[in-house]
Amino acid sequence: MDEKNIENEQPIIANIENNNQNEDIKNEENPEIKLIEDQIDPGEIKETKQKEVIQIDELTPKSKQKIFLLVLLIFLLVIIIIIALIIFTLKDIQKEDDITVLSPLIINSTSGNHTHTIIFMPGYTNQPEDFEKLFKTEINFDKKNDTTIIILRSPLVNVSLTNSKNYSWFDIYSLPIDNYSTVNLDDLKKSAKVLDKVVNNEVNILNGDYTKIIVGGHSQGAAISLYQAYTTKEKYGGLFAFSGFLTPGDISDDKKTLPVYMGYGDKDNVITPSFINQTIEKIMDFPGFDLHIYKDHLHHICTNQTKDASIFLNNTIE
Q: Total structural domains in the chain?
């Protein structure tokens, strides 16, 4: 080897020696680093990194699966809630449409010329058969042969007054009825839908003319007839009420001329006269309202009432 090559190699060797010396100095200055490096096996570092990669690869699908299942569960819950709301809505609609009219007693017009319909609602514990004689022989008017009379049947329900089942249009909590809290007004309004359904059926027969419909009732039935006739949007041909009361509700101006006969006894022991007067106070001045109070009379329908009702129907059904 020539001297030139030797001279070139000497700086390289010197640099290597200097680097080794620097490393030794660093290690001497940081003995902890050297100790850690001596203790760590390069193979272990590689194996640890590989395990971390494997763990990440294993957890990621599980996490995704958990998230997917959670989203799916939330989605199913939302669907269940929506279905439940639809079912409840349909039930409410069905309740509105599914109004049962229980086998009424019908006295058909005898002339073959059906021009008007009377729809009558009996009171508490009474059934249509109790009023058959009343309409066949006691209430009379000129157009009776042209009039179909429908006497509705109340349902057999549990009544709070007796804590037993009886024929009743609405629940009664106590007697006498002397304020609105003694009866269930919600039941009363539901029963009015039965009357409304029968009215609409008859109107279809009478060419859509609501003025050909006369509604009426006794006691509970009178209260329902008054409520329905004064609150429905249609105007009936007339109303006759024996011993009833008026339920609160909006009354339109056109109902002020609705022909109404109302009669009750001044000794009524089922619905107090003071309560009746209180409830009808706002309609007493209506031009179509005709009130009759019968001296020393109780709650049942008396002969004078049937006579006055006959006169009313004779004037109303033309």
A: 2
